[in-house]
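User: Quick one: structure for sequence A, then sequence B.

Assistant: Sequence A:
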Amino acid sequence: MEKPGIPGLFVYMGLRTAKDWNQFLLRFFVALGIWEVASVSLRTLLFSTFYFDPNLKNFFVPMSQVFWIGPIVADILEVSFIGILASLVRPALPYGLLGGLLSGICFSIAAFVAPALAISQFTGAFPVKLIWLWVFYQSVLSILVSFVFTFTSEED
């Protein structure tokens, strides 16, 4: 139970009324839809050469054996986390697409570039080219979703 006078996370996100929640959920579902459409295209474009590489034959799981609830839940978690962060930092961001670009790049550096750099330098578990393609893939999707969450119009 929340103490009186101490606002919770949703108040900081600007989600005080039903209209605010509707706008956030609409942006969430639009961002998730864009994420899913773009991710299938980018995944096919970037990773298809690795899938047929004989050196990496045992690295990838065949499509028939993928348990699809895992990637879908991962996408939902990532889009919702970007939405929460974008809602929290929206007052400090520049208006328009510049704010989305800035928040998407900052999120990508923290969430993907730094761990990929550490993994590629400290371990030899994954091919370096594959790691950086994954970082590019996730960064493009994060920037697209950040555009959706930071876009403002006259009605906002």
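Sequence B:
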Amino acid sequence: MSTFPALNGTRLIKALRRLGFDLIRIKGSHRFLRHPDGRCTVVPVHRGETIGRGLVA
């Protein structure tokens, strides 16, 4: 079982930014982030919804 908490999109983006990810673009409610080492991720930011622990782990 994961020890990560369920987060909303905004809080997850803040955590990823602290880890070195940069926001590269926005399309609708999705934020695209890239790390300098090449890793990329997409974070949905939907009002009132959380991102489950299994997706954060």
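The chain has one domain: 7-56. Residues 28 and 44 are 9 Å apart (CA to CA).

User: Thanks, that's what I needed.
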